[in-house]
Write a structure and sequence with these properties.
single chain; about 475 residues; mainly alpha; globular; disordered C terminus
Length: about 475
């Protein structure tokens, strides 16, 4: 062991305080230096948490600057365009970014290196080729139907489609790096480097005299995304040379696609669910309202990213435990991930509610209209955190179809409630629809995991041993 938190405390702190902290510090040492798979998963989750924490701070600062420079109207246009582009880029991978996480550990364990080379190549080639086609079709569609779209959205959307291939490739590289527990390589480009570069490019444009419009902001994001993704591609390829030497590829596209498609439905519905509220607000309300709602949701990400952090470290471990057929160990690890998700989320939710209004004021005085929405939205986020990354467990256990059905129903609930509530209650209606949908999602996922795997992931379920999983129906 290198630096030990426990030994450092013994040297620097009073003896009584050191002894009180020792159990927690020993656990921290185990997480930081432990070589067990459980410790690795905790370490990856911790790294992911810290990356997302830094990312949330960067995103908050950059979005505050953008909102201040651009004003509510232009900022609202940029938000709707960029959220749409990111959604399309993510969905265009058709689940391959997660399929890589599932198959890479299996192929390495079985030393099926030709299959490993095949899926590494296919995942990237598939993402690039499909999203390029979608980008061309999307841009052409916006141009052809430009008379049916608000004029201020046309140019930003057409330009934004240029970014689709790099967003999809970046998501695929994220999954590729996560398959080897390379948390920094997976998360740093998307969550730290890209937003920083976007802010830098936008700042240069601002200083050189370009008007702070939505088009300039979209172009800045495109430049940052291309730069970041290409650098990530070089790093991931270089690191995999130390894992598998160049050689023959075995392409099993049909098998991989059969696994990817249900995962695509699960993650696609989930991704739409996490962003549908912004899209629905953009459908019914003016760009200024979109800007206010997005700023509020951006603050909420400070809580929600705990879930994503735990998911980043847990997915690979779920896959490995499924292959060992140790159901008790899988059940215990699943309950651990629920605790890792819930308690930090609850703590951050309380802090956010205390600081929400001054944080929204940073965007501009008019953005504080979104503060009451936080009290509604945070209920859904905390409820969702109470069952941890349950959908990841279902995916790694081969239960993609039932998981996809859960998210499909939840998305339908969200959209239907948004259609009913937003025209009548505005932003409050959007917040209520989203919060109720997240509570519904948490309850349904918890029941599904218990019914299909006999694992109770609810954070207050305790440590009772679980029965063997049921066979797939």
């Amino acid at each position: 062991m290198g630096i030990s938190a426990a030994r450092t405390a013994d040297r620097l702190l009073p003896e009584r305080l050191s002894q009180q902290l020792r159990p927690w510090l020993l656990r921290l040492d185990q997480v930081l230096d432990g070589s067990t798979e459980h410790a690795v998963a905790q370490r990856v989750s911790l790294i992911a948490f810290l990356v997302r924490l830094v990312s949330a701070a960067i995103a908050l600062v950059s979005q505050v600057i953008f909102a201040r420079w651009m004003g509510q109207f232009e900022y609202g246009i940029f938000v709707l365009v960029w959220v749409t582009v990111v959604i399309l880029g993510n969905l265009s991978c058709l689940g391959f970014q997660t399929t890589v996480i599932r198959f890479v550990p299996e192929y390495l364990e079985r030393q099926q290196l030709d299959h490993l080379r095949g899926i590494l190549f296919t995942s990237k080639a598939f993402a690039l080729s499909l999203t390029t086609c979608i980008a061309v079709i999307g841009a052409a569609g916006v141009y052809l139907f430009r008379n049916s779209i608000e004029s201020y959205y046309v140019a930003p959307f057409i330009i934004g489609f240029i970014c689709l291939p790099m967003i999809a490739l970046g998501d695929t590289l994220d999954g590729t790096a996560r398959s080897r527990s390379w948390a920094l390589v997976a998360l740093t480009p998307t969550y730290i480097i890209r937003p920083v570069l976007t802010l830098v490019v936008m700042s240069i444009a601002h200083v050189t005299g370009f008007a702070p419009t939505a088009v300039v902001a979209v172009v800045s994001a495109i430049i940052a995304t291309y730069t970041t993704t290409l650098l990530q591609l070089l790093v991931v390829n270089h690191r995999f040379k130390g894992v598998v030497a160049p050689g023959a590829r075995q392409i099993r596209f049909g098998e991989w696609f059969a696994v990817s498609l249900p995962i695509f439905l699960v993650e696609g519905f989930f991704f739409l669910l996490t962003n549908a509220d912004v899209l629905m607000v953009g459908r019914y309300l003016a760009p200024e309202k979109v800007a206010t709602y997005f700023a509020t949701v951006k603050l909420l990400a400070l809580v929600h990213f705990v879930y994503f952090s735990v998911k980043a470290g847990a997915a690979q471990r779920y896959s490995e435990l499924m292959h060992t057929h140790d159901h008790d160990q899988l059940a215990q690890f699943a309950r651990d991930t629920a605790r890792w998700t819930f308690w930090p989320s609850l703590a951050m939710a309380i802090v956010l509610l205390l600081l929400g209004k001054p944080l929204l004021y940073l965007f501009g005085a008019q953005f504080t209209d979104g503060y009451p929405l936080l009290f509604v939205l945070v209920i859904g986020v905390v409820a969702r955190a109470s069952v941890g990354p349950a959908e990841s467990l279902l995916n790694m256990a081969g239960k993609q179809k039932i998981c996809a059905a859960v998210y499909a129903v939840t998305l339908i609930v969200n959209i239907c409630l948004s259609i009913l509530l937003i025209p009548v209650y505005g932003l409050a209606g959007a917040a209520c629809a989203t919060a109720f949908s997240m509570v519904f999602e948490a309850v349904t996922l918890a029941l599904t995991v218990y019914n299909r795997l006999n694992i109770n992931m609810f954070v207050f379920a305790g440590r009772t041993s679980a029965r063997p999983a049921k066979e797939e129906i």
